[in-house]
Design brief:
This protein has 545 residues and is mainly alpha-helical. It has 2 domains: 198 residues, Growth Hormone, Chain: A (Up-down Bundle), CATH 1.20.1250; 211 residues, MFS general substrate transporter like domains (Growth Hormone, Chain: A), CATH 1.20.1250.20. The chain is built from 16 helices and 2 strands. The protein starts with a helix and ends in a 27-residue tail after the last helix. Keywords: Cell membrane, Ion transport, Iron, Membrane, Metal-binding, Transmembrane, Transmembrane helix, Transport.
């Protein structure tokens, strides 16, 4: 249901606003800004409350918000003409604002669900077995990749053969049903795993700071098969109404979210896996993914929707291959080296993307200013382009009949006016690199995920992962800003080179983390990894893989 909604909401917003991307852009900006600002607060809320309460609350809020959004969208699709005439269209604008606001709440609740289930529950369920944790992480990612394929296909077919309104109704009904099933499954898992009822007590900020400081002089024991056992005192999770809260003043209550925000980012910086987390975040500063930006560029190069759907399917397959590679590499070389190998594999594949910029068919033109389109719109008062019903011969000007809907004909039927076919070498290399790089990307992502699971103390697991999500969204937001500043196809080659540079910087950060953690044993593949946070590991936990 969550994947269906993420795919469909952008399509619905485009349909509502007359085939314009304005509402979609506003929604993306609101979502990224909200997680950036509230990620630490969401994580802190996860840490301070019982696991079952957090999971159930976030699940209900997320699905209820999606259902409500679906109902509102159905009303808008049904009565859009009438809403346009009421209060000079302000009522319709209010509906747009309401939809974006509720959809943003659903995304924040989804973030809380991901933190508590994928970063906390899974660690407790895995117990002290690192291999089991790695297998569970990989399985969850495979399921995620499969739903990324199946959910858009299902919604797309319903909207194609039905209507957007029917699509809204289907998603609302599906989320209502799935909410009940997921709620029951969470309760079953909670009942069958008694350790989920125990949670580490929240320690004071001063104690956290001391715990997060890395002791360079400590001897690092080898990587074992057990997870880090928390040293802090644990107890049963607080029940509702079980303890009295201290009376605090109004000023302290207002300042509390800002203090939590600051403490969360400080704690994240002090983590021993800080460089690994930053390396992962830097991978979000890229146009080399199957998002709307890369898809739009592919359309300008003449690729049809059917070809793009095949490429997206191939990308999902290589992503699943990455999860298999992660589990195999971790068993052979250890967790930290798996991230290093995955990073090298991803960067090597992205070299193809950098080469594609200079190959025949690339629209890159350094004589065209990347800001030419922006300046024309803002300072020369040129009208914005409108999307009209295109004639068949004007759909694409690339002359590639095998990849488009039918054959290319010239204007007025004159063959001499036909555009020259665009060579496929550049775009083929670009997508070959993007698809192949998914193997290393998802293996690296799973590596950093497990490093965070193993090396962040339980009492601040939520807030650290909340800040990690904020960092991811920050770099993702920067990549959208980069595209807004240079939107023309002639500048896409520069965006590709910048993206490859940021990926390289991210993996350099991870290499520095691996070097500090393993030292001279970094390139000895069959030697187990030492702990990234040795001070959190008990002295007796030194068994080898």
């Amino acid at each position: 249901g969550d994947r269906m909604w993420h795919f469909a909401v952008s399509v619905f917003l485009v349909e509502l606003y007359g085939n314009s991307l304005l509402l979609t852009a506003v929604y993306g900006l609101v979502v990224a800004g909200s997680v950036l600002l509230l990620g630490a607060l969401i994580g802190d809320w996860v840490d301070k409350n019982s696991r079952l309460k957090v999971a159930q609350t976030s699940l209900v809020v997320q699905n209820s918000s999606v259902i409500l959004c679906g109902v509102i969208l159905m009303i808008i699709f049904l009565f859009k003409t009438q809403l346009l005439t009421l209060y000079h269209g302000w009522l319709l604008t209010l509906c747009y604002i309401l939809v974006i606001t509720i959809a943003n709440i659903a995304n924040l609740a989804s973030t809380a669900t991901a933190i508590t289930i994928q970063r906390d529950w899974i660690v407790v369920v895995a117990g002290e077995d690192r291999s089991k944790l790695a297998d569970m992480n990989a399985t969850i990612r495979r399921i995620d990749q499969l739903t990324n394929i199946l959910a858009p296909m299902a919604v797309g077919q319903i909207m194609t053969f039905g209507s957007p309104m029917i699509g809204c109704g289907f998603i609302s009904g599906w989320n209502l049903m799935s909410m009940c099933v997921e709620y029951l499954l969470l309760w079953k898992v909670y009942q069958k795993t008694p350790t989920l009822a125990r949670k580490s007590a929240k320690v004071e900020a001063s104690e956290l700071k001391q715990l997060n400081v890395k002791k360079e002089s400590d001897t690092k024991p080898p990587e074992g098969v057990q997870l880090i056992i928390e040293k802090d005192v644990t107890g049963f999770e607080p029940q509702q109404g079980g303890r009295k809260e201290k009376e605090v003043g109004c000023t302290a209550r207002i300042a509390e979210p800002f203090i939590t925000f600051r403490d969360g980012w400080v704690a994240y910086y002090n983590q021993p896996v800080f460089l690994a987390g930053m390396g992962l975040a830097f991978l979000y500063m890229t146009v080399l993914g199957f998002d709307c930006i890369t898809t739009g560029y592919a359309y300008t190069q003449g690729l049809s929707g059917s070809v793009l759907s095949l490429l997206m399917g191939a990308s999902a397959v290589t992503g699943i291959m990455g999860t298999v590679a992660f589990t195999w590499l971790r068993r052979k070389c250890g967790l930290i080296r798996t991230g290093l190998i995955s990073g090298v594999a991803q960067f090597a594949c992205l070299i193809l993307c950098a080469i594609s910029v200079f190959m025949p068919g690339s629209p890159m033109d350094l004589t065209v200013s990347p800001f030419a389109d922006i300046s024309a719109r803002l300072f020369e008062n040129e009208p914005l382009p409108t999307i009209a019903s295109p004639e068949p011969e004007m759909i694409f000007a690339t002359g590639m009949p095998n990849l488009l809907n039918g054959s290319i004909a010239s204007a007025n039927g004159d063959p001499e006016m036909s555009p020259e076919p665009v060579p496929l070498i550049s775009v083929s290399l670009l997508f070959a690199g993007v698809i192949a790089a998914r193997v290393g990307l998802w293996s690296f992502d799973l590596t950093v995920t497990q490093l965070l699971q193993e090396n962040v103390i339980e009492s601040e697991r939520g807030i650290i992962n909340g800040v990690q999500n904020s960092m991811n969204y920050l770099l993702d937001l920067l990549h959208f800003i980069m595209v807004i500043l240079a939107p023309n196809p002639e500048a896409f080659g520069l965006l590709v080179l910048i993206s490859v540079s940021f990926v390289a910087m991210g993996h350099i950060m991870y290499f520095r983390f691996a070097q500090k953690s393993l030292g001279k044993q970094l390139f000895v593949c069959h030697t187990p990894d030492p702990k990234a946070a040795p001070d959190s590991s008990p002295p007796g936990n030194t068994s080898t893989v």
